[in-house]
Design a protein that fits this description.
Distance between the termini: 33 Å
Shape: globular
Structural class: mainly beta
Radius of gyration: 27 Å
């Protein structure tokens, strides 16, 4: 996963930058180390509804009801207007291709409606692989792939700009791709091979934004450049595909430093461009909107409201401009969005006279989030949103507008009533999963950005929304008392407390009466013992600094430090004996155990794998002292004496995460579920015989990139498994 590319000099010198071309059918067969044939599994989303940053929405200009969406870490989607839902297009990307789940840009061909192009790559750092371009002739049902020799940054600053990928308006075989650090690339064979575009004036920077947008205005291609200081040119154009020039008269200054997005009104022949003083989505405090009359070459500023004023409470009203879209049916009708406007809340402005006057759609907006209640964020009603850089206007319906936020997609068909247009799109980054043995819910989840959810139904967004009292931005810990499942505790990042407990299985919550002072700055994993009488809370700062764990025996009323607990380790409660806790010290490769309810820990087995790799210690349900250690490099280890001794499990070569579920009929041990590798293929496996043999249960259409955070089976339904993904929400599978 840490591939390196060629030198920047080679790319800019015009060398071909396509490393390989691969055809990806709907399903690819692989040989793997599992001895059993894979059963047929049905895979579905656990419905939450969005919960991630939608960075782009693109209506097809030639097909009614067809649209595409891209996300920063969760892949791309196609909108089916008849079914009113999104279809995931990149779930086939597997473990080794996790970096390709960030979508940098997408493009459609107006002359060939079946064609779709995606530019993929999440990060540009040295420790990740290069980007890739996927191209489809059937709207993303199947793909051909070209691996690039440059990196793309779909989850880096500037991910809401664009699109950076464009089909040339003069020739459908020619494509343009703007990169962050390697200039402008060009393909003359529909994306099969790529080379540096000759004559493009932008000078690549190792730390800059590079090309921020590509847009066609008639037969002319415009390119935004994100590395200007506010005085030099940042918008270029070419009329013939070879000679580029800076656009004359373009705006300058701080408020027009970075071109964010652009849209061309073919009815008035005007190009609208939004600007900001930083690429965003964070860090913007100034911006503007300008339009260029492409015939007369005259620029006009049409900024709806200039940043820098004050709100009613005296706060500074700083923000920038993000999305822009034009009405294909009504000349001079255009919408733009603000971005990073925290004091007065972001909005979408609409003009019907070419930007001379504007109306804020926020002022009359009525929201219905009954389908995704978490969007209230613990308040009485939702807000208009934030991080609004994706903005689209349906070319076949002038009143159908869609905009993306950091958590969802909102849509309207009458300019007043808004609701999430998000069915089928799940982008949550998932941290913890619990499948309770009893109760209404089969699943409780701990999530990035949206805290903890209680899933009464797997097919509907939780009716209670985010767990409140307090609300967490992101969950860091989640634990249920094995012998008292009505008692659940959680930890996370919050403004009004960082720990909470529930006495009704996770339906309602109350904050701990007190918390250690370090909890505000470093909330980490938390565990409750089997009967819910003892809590162990670990503290780890976001920068990796580890602090001593704390213990409570009075439901969080008081806390004491546990010096013998290894800093940063995740506490594991014995599911049968309330006096026992366990921990794995990854620094020394040592198992530790407590027999006094977590007051002290003593060393057990030593000499186990250590270092900065991936480890997970889990306890088998209903059994005392039955521990499994999952390791990325060395596979599985097992202890049946509470960590005193450990035996290597020979059936696996690597295990990233391990969980348990209901035993198979006639089996005397719970089913095991693993993301790992019995042989050469990292995939999802099940064992019904205590890890003697493994069966792969996912297929090549259902891989979801990196899925190594956590996995658990359902203790009430044999064969059902829940998988945490990093950007595709919670996936659950059942034998078909």
């Amino acid at each position: 996963m840490r591939a390196s590319g060629p030198s920047r000099r080679a790319v800019l010198g015009g060398a071909a930058v396509a490393a390989a071309v691969t055809v990806i059918p709907a399903v690819q067969g692989h040989a793997y180390g599992a001895p059993a044939a894979a059963p047929s599994y049905r895979w579905r989303d656990v419905v939450i509804g969005g919960a991630g940053f939608v960075t782009g929405v693109l209506f097809h200009p030639s097909v009614r009801g067809l649209a595409y969406a891209r996300t920063d870490i969760g892949g791309a989607y196609r909108w089916d207007d008849r079914a009113a839902r999104w279809t995931a297009l990149t779930d086939h990307l597997g473990w080794d291709d996790w970096n390709l789940l960030g979508v940098e840009a997408m493009a459609v061909d107006p002359a060939h409606p079946e064609r779709l192009y995606l530019a993929l790559g999440t990060y540009t750092q040295s420790w990740v692989g290069n980007g890739a371009v996927l191209r489809s002739e059937d709207r993303g049902a199947t793909w051909a792939r070209t691996d690039l020799a440059v990196k793309l940054g779909g989850n880096e600053d500037g991910r809401g700009t664009g699109e950076r990928l464009l089909v040339d308006p003069r020739d459908s075989d020619t494509l343009w791709l703007g990169t962050r650090h390697d200039g402008l690339l060009k393909s003359t064979d529909r994306g099969a091979t790529w080379a540096a575009a000759t004559g493009f004036p932008g000078i690549p920077s190792a730390t800059g934004q590079g090309v921020t947008l590509l847009v066609a205005a008639g037969r002319t291609v415009y390119a935004g450049w994100g590395d200007s200081d506010g005085t030099a040119a940042n918008l270029y154009r070419t009329a013939d595909g070879s000679r580029w020039e800076a656009v004359p008269g373009q705006p300058s200054g701080t408020a027009a430093k970075v071109p964010i997005r652009a849209a061309y009104d073919c009815l008035t022949r005007e190009l609208y461009v939004t600007y900001a003083n930083a690429p965003g989505p964070n860090g913007q405090s100034d911006g503007s909107v300008h339009k260029l009359a492409t015939v007369t070459r005259r620029w006009t500023e049409v900024t709806p409201v200039k940043p820098g004023g004050t709100t009613s409470d005296g706060s500074a009203d700083t923000f920038a401009y993000g999305g822009v879209a034009v009405d294909a049916r009504r000349p001079g009708t255009v919408v733009v969005s603000t971005n990073n406007r925290w004091a007065d809340i972001d909005t979408v402005y609409r003009s019907t006279n070419g930007g001379r006057t504007w109306t804020s759609l926020k002022d009359t907006a009525v929201f219905d989030v009954s389908e995704t209640p978490f969007l209230k964020w613990g308040a009485d009603k939702p807000k208009f949103g934030w991080w609004i850089q994706a903005l689209a206007l349906d070319p076949y319906d002038s009143r159908h507008i869609v905009y993306g936020t950091g958590a969802t997609l909102y849509g309207t068909r009458d300019l007043k009533n808004w609701a999430p247009q998000i069915r089928g799109l799940e982008e949550t980054s998932v941290r913890q999963l619990i499948s309770p043995p009893v109760g209404k819910a089969h699943l409780i989840s701990g999530l990035g950005d949206i805290g903890v959810m209680y899933h009464e139904r797997l097919t509907a967004s939780p009716s209670r929304g985010m767990a409140s009292n307090p609300v967490f931005a992101s969950a860091t810990g989640l634990s249920q008392a094995a012998r008292k499942p009505a008692y659940v505790v959680r930890a996370g990042w919050g403004d009004n407390g960082n720990g909470a407990y529930s006495n009704d299985g996770g339906q309602t919550w109350a904050p701990f009466k007190t918390q250690p002072s370090i909890a505000k700055d470093a909330p980490g994993p938390i565990a409750t013992n089997a009967d819910g009488t003892v809590l162990l809370w670990v503290f780890v700062h976001w920068d990796g600094t580890k602090y001593p764990a704390h213990r409570s025996t009075d439901n969080g009323a008081t806390w004491t430090e546990v010096p013998s607990f290894p800093k940063g380790a995740t506490p594991v409660a014995d599911p049968a004996d309330p006096t026992r806790f366990y921990a794995y010290d990854t620094d020394t490769g040592t198992l530790l155990a407590s027999t006094d309810s977590g007051a002290s820990f003593t060393k057990g087995a030593t000499g186990l794998p250590s270092g900065d790799s991936q480890f997970e210690l889990v306890a088998a349900p209903g059994r005392s002292g039955d521990l499994w250690l999952s390791t990325k490099v060395n596979g599985l280890y097992r202890s049946t004496d509470g960590g005193a001794t450990v035996t290597k499990v020979t059936s696996t070569s690597a295990s990233h995460t391990l969980g348990f579920g209901k035993a198979a009929d006639g089996a005397d041990y719970p089913a095991l579920y693993m993301v790992g590798s019995p042989g050469s293929i990292t995939a999802v496996y099940r064992s019904d015989d205590g890890a003697k043999t493994w069966t792969r249960i996912n297929d090549d259409r259902h891989q979801w990139g990196w899925i190594g955070e956590t996995i658990t089976g359902d203790p009430r339904v044999h064969g059902r498994v829940y998988i945490a993904t990093n950007g595709r929400g919670i996936q659950y599978g059942e034998p078909a």
